[in-house]
């Protein structure tokens, strides 16, 4: 069965308002299930029951489970990046980076995301999956990394960071600190690793700015 493009029904037809609502409900319920119990362990039947739809509706909208998984990846990337959107647009100062760090810590300190970052959770399970799912995940992470890179480039262009600071490498390091810190946080049951890793990198940048 053909796989649906991300964000579009497998049928290729334009959705009615009711169809859009059904599509979003299926994706939302599937995302919650896959976050809690994993992609492999989430059956189409589980999604049917949670969303209150038939199997034929799921296949109509997504083509197969692979199409549904791709839609979930897109949903989770938009959800995660949406939370950070106001900050990601202007990560061009130490204060902005600290505010971004504080938002991440607050989200994971309250116990809402015990399985870690929804994007990271999908990536850990799907990293050896199909080229399409890897590309979808990489696109989401690239948007996050790009926002960090743009902010650091702006700081360097204003002369706040020396030329020896590579915005591309530092942006990747910050993103890796988030994902690695969250992975350790799951085992430790606290956010110390996440806080320490981000603070260390931000303090390093602060040291260059203050010189």
Structural write-up:
With 211 residues, the protein is mainly alpha-helical. The chain has nine helices and no strands. It has two domains: 1-75, Orthogonal Bundle (Arc Repressor Mutant, subunit A), CATH 1.10.10; 89-211, Tetracycline Repressor, domain 2. It is 73% helix and 0% strand. Helix 1 packs across helix 2 and helix 8 (167-188) packs antiparallel against helix 9. The model is unreliable at 1-5 (pLDDT under 50).
Cα gyration radius (Å): 19 Å
- CATH class categorisation of the largest domain: Mainly Alpha
Percent in helix: over 70%
The number of distinct β-strands equals: 0
3D shape: elongated
How many helix segments?
9
Give helix and strand order, one letter per element, not per position.
HHHHHHHHH
Structural class: mainly alpha
The CATH topology of the largest domain is Tetracycline Repressor, domain 2
Largest sheet: none
* CATH homologous superfamily label of the largest domain: Tetracycline Repressor, domain 2
- Unreliable stretches covering 5 or more consecutive residues: 1-5
Distance between the termini: 60 Å
Number of domains: 2
Proportion of strand residues: under 5%
The CATH architecture of the largest domain is Orthogonal Bundle
Instruction: Please state the average pLDDT score.
Output: 88
